[in-house]
Amino acid sequence: MKIKDVTKEYPNKDLTIVWKPKRCIHAEKCWRNLPEVFRYGKKPWIDPEGASSDRISAQINQCPSGALSYYWNEDDKTPSNGTTVRVIPSGPLVVKGNFELIKPDGSTSIEQNAALCRCGASENKPFCDNSHQKIEFEQ
To answer: DSSP string spanning the chain?
Structure first.
């Protein structure tokens, strides 16, 4: 089943939660660690009023794929300093922090946290979809 390439936003008074379901690698950190906001099996599954904005942002910062991100409502959504890239053995590149993604067609987007494909098998390039496990990618 193909997942649509959509972006949904869930604002509260302080921040806006951004959800990109096509990027999700189902690490389950969100709903296991903050179920009052990320409500598994419910619609809508995100309740931005379920916890404090500080707790929400701290939880979203643990999302390895970038399927969940956020921006503070008073910010201008531009990249900030402090971005890191970590190579996961036999897995993706995990980018933490805000960065600008320049696509092959020249269009750009501001991203926050992402798991980027290293194996070449992802059907959601440049993002990881866990295909490295299926093809037994090692590096």
So the answer is: -PPP---EEEE-SSEEEEE-GGG-----HHHHH-TTTB-TT-SS-B-TTSS-HHHHHHHHTT-SSSSEEEEETTS-----S--EEEEPTTS-EEEEEEEEEE-TTS-EEEEEEEEE-SSS--TTTTB--SHHHHTT---
Q: Residue 97's pLDDT is what?
A: 87
What would you report as the CA-atom Rg of the chain, rounded to the nearest whole angstrom? 15
Q: What is the CATH number of domain 8-72?
A: 3.30.70.20
- Residue matched to tokens 């269009």: 107
Task: Determine the average pLDDT of the residues in 125-135.
Answer: 94
Q: What's the confidence (pLDDT) of residue 17? A: 95
Q: Write the CATH number of the domain with boundaries 84-134.
A: 3.40.5
CB atoms within 10 A of CB 34: 18
pLDDT band at 2 (very low <50, low <70, confident <90, very high): low
Q: Where are the domains of the chain?
A: 8-72, 84-134
- The rounded Cα 118 to chain-centroid distance in angstroms is 17
Task: Give yes or no on whether 8-72 and 84-134 have one common fold.
Answer: no
